[in-house]
Design a protein that fits this description.
Blueprint: E1 11-20, E2 23-31, E3 37-41, E4 46-53, E5 59-61, H1 69-74, E6 82-83, E7 89-90, E8 94-97, E9 100-103, E10 112-113, E11 126-130, E12 135-142, E13 153-161, E14 166-175, E15 179-180, E16 184-185, E17 188-189, E18 203-206, E19 208-212, E20 225-226, E21 238-239, E22 262-267, E23 275-281, E24 288-293, E25 297-301, E26 324-329, E27 344-345, E28 351-360
Antiparallel strand pairs: 1-2, 2-3, 3-4, 4-5, 6-16, 7-10, 8-9, 11-12, 12-13, 13-14, 14-28, 15-27, 17-26, 18-21, 18-23, 19-20, 19-22, 22-25, 23-24, 24-28, 25-26
């Protein structure tokens, strides 16, 4: 879908992105007065495009993705998707809840990842539009036992684009039984443009003094370590690629060489506080994003398992480190570590996970 010469104002346009059987998959385009245009679809409550001007006013699509619904169905990259019930990983897909062992599906070798084989990213969500606030709200119902998780969960994911160049993403959920819920948003950002190569020259700042180490299966060990003196120290902005070859991460067998960053950072503010999480900048284009969140952690994944086998929008073959994700979250495998922020959700409680992404053109 082209965004050239569109009316420069807050508006929501709907279209049909494709169909699964006889079920259409609607899509929506949101724009604002500053030339920002973004597309979301109801399959996976997914962000598929975001066009952001640079310092010279030239717009580029700065998120990785695909042109067709069939390509989103076929991919295992989670590009732009809303993941759940449990985004991130659970070792062996098992944990104890109220004295009972729960076994959920395992879809990354022997471990659980991003909701399982048919997680939220594989569902067609319901959709409603609030044109006045320039917002789309997606909703999904996950029955008791879905991918092994207890309780009936009703979840939503909303996207709102403001005239202040803020993209607000809010994920909510409620359950009729005690369960765990950790929804994550999985957009890959490349501020030079989705088709521009790797993000190693992007400068990254993280508001985090600690991180959680991982083992060779990419699973958290339960440790919490200081970033000081390590390759995980982004407390001062530095290029993503500055130390990436020194990251000890073989990618659970996905790659022969290092897989780069795929780690959780422990944010400095308390859970529930609306805090600065990260800033990402492309020095060449002047584009930058600042991320705020209510969650205690952020998984930064630098796309080390992407390769030219992944053919993206416009037939572009992506590459290793083609994009960077910011998965704000409860910590990976939190149900198995009592000292991690809890992912438990009880009946009557509301899971509320908010992200604010401030978009900067550099002008």
């Amino acid at each position: 879908m082209s965004f050239a010469n569109e009316e420069d104002a807050l508006t929501v346009q709907s279209f049909v992105f494709g169909a699964i059987g006889d079920r259409p998959v609607p899509g929506f385009v949101l724009r604002n007065r500053h030339g920002v245009a973004m597309t979301v679809i109801s399959y996976g409550a997914c962000l598929t495009q975001l066009h952001l001007p640079d310092v010279r006013g030239r717009a580029a699509d700065v998120v990785l993705g695909f042109d067709t619904l069939d390509e989103y169905i076929a991919t295992d990259t989670y590009a732009g998707a809303t993941c759940g019930r449990y985004g991130s990983r659970i070792r062996r897909g098992t944990f104890i809840l109220d004295g009972r062992q729960v076994q959920v599906s395992c879809n990354e070798g022997p471990n659980h990842l991003h909701g399982g084989r048919e997680g939220f990213d594989r569902k067609i969500w319901g959709a409603s539009v609030d044109a006045q606030s320039n917002q789309v709200v997606f909703t999904v119902a996950s029955p008791d036992g879905d991918e092994g998780f207890p309780g009936m969960v009703v979840a939503s994911a909303s996207y709102r684009l403001t005239d202040e160049n803020v993209l607000e993403i809010v994920m909510r959920g409620q359950s009729d039984r005690p369960t765990v819920l950790n929804m994550v948003h999985h957009t890959y950002w490349n501020l030079a443009g989705h088709d521009s190569g790797d993000v190693c020259a992007h400068r990254l700042h993280l508001n985090a003094d600690f991180y959680t180490p991982i083992d060779d299966e990419l699973m958290t060990t339960g440790e919490v370590r200081a970033v000081a003196g390590t390759v995980f120290d982004f407390r001062a902005p530095k290029p993503i690629g500055a130390n990436i070859d020194a990251v000890s991460n073989i990618g659970a067998g996905r790659v022969e060489a290092g897989g780069g960053y795929d780690h959780n950072w422990c944010l400095n503010a308390a859970t529930g506080e609306h805090q600065v999480c990260a800033r990402l900048e492309d020095p060449a284009s002047g584009r930058a994003i600042e991320l705020f969140t209510t969650e205690p952690g952020v998984q930064v994944y630098t796309g080390g398992y992407l390769s030219e086998k992944v053919v993206g929008k416009g037939g572009r073959r992506y590459c290793k480190y083609a994009g960077l994700t910011f998965e704000t979250q409860r910590f990976p495998d939190a149900p198995n570590f009592g000292h991690f922020p809890s992912a438990r959700l009880n009946p009557g409680e509301v899971y509320a996970h908010r992200m604010e992404i401030h978009l900067h053109s550099g002008a």
